[in-house]
Amino acid sequence: MSRGVATSARARRPASASIAGADLLALAAAKPRPRRTPAPPRNRGVLREVIDTLDGTVQGVVERGRRGSLDDRDPAFIESQLRWLQPLADIYFRGEVRDIERIPARGPVLVVGNHSGGLATPDTWVFMVNFLRHFGTQRGAYALAHNVVMGLPLAGRWLRKVGTLPAHPDAARDALRRRAAVLVYPGGDEDVFRPWSERNRIRLAGRTGFIRLALQERVPVQPVVSIGGHETVFVASDGRRLARTLGLERFRLKALPLVIAPPWGISPGDLLLHVPLPAKITVQVGEPIDFHAQFGALDARDPEVLWACYHYVERRMQTILDTLAAERRLPLLG
């Protein structure tokens, strides 16, 4: 590209973009955007026939999971559940949450975490127990979860009462506008089912929706990074290719892992659930990131801006995780 063309392209950017904002945009070139592997040709294998047969049932679960209200959260119920969640977090997982005071005591904030440990997600409970203990149950706080999980009859009802919402931008936006703290895991199932060999890698899966939301609502992003959760289970393979082959993306499922954990041994897809091993879980709360304050006015509609901010958060979180990993002596023991 010639210098003249490059200058013209820069001139089309909003005049409000600051020098710092321009520096942030330079990060977009520091790491190429992740490219999705094209789905292999779909063949009608036996397993796929089974999936297609169950299509209506699963779609019903997904549809049910989309329902939810901020008012479903019940502080009194949360208090009652802390009686057994606290020993689980403090004793079984020897949970430690550092610098939780960095999270504002009031007002909206988008808490962005890495996700580990399969469907049990023990790092979530360690963090939330400590959050609720520090700020109290009256501090507005919500977490987002996959529609399939939210659509399960008993689990979905329990999750709604403890403050879980369907993973959708509108749900998160409504909570932020109520000045709540909102916990999101952008990597979703691709992150929570990443192979054990990648347990110390941040995998946000190239999803920039949380960045768009933070910029639109002008709220800070609060990185929260955990280690140890992915030592409570052994994920041999994330099964992303298999998930594509079976057409599971229609259910917003990107992974179909091979999990090895008690009591079943091998559990395809973690569908049988498992008993997490008692690994020590440490959670580090990072410094908040206020993109507008740090980099000037940024356009939430610009894909380059979204990718640059995404990479900035991902790199910050990976640095924190690298530090936690360097402290760790042995898996499980911490």
UniProtKB/TrEMBL annotation:
The keyword Acyltransferase applies. GO terms for molecular function: acyltransferase activity. This is 1-acyl-sn-glycerol-3-phosphate acyltransferase. Keywords: Acyltransferase, Transferase. Residues 109-229 form the Phospholipid/glycerol acyltransferase domain. GO terms for cellular component: membrane. It holds the Pfam family Acyltransferase. InterPro entries: P_lipid/glycerol_AcTrfase_prd (IPR016676), Plipid/glycerol_acylTrfase (IPR002123). The keyword Hydrolase does not apply. Transmembrane segments: none annotated.
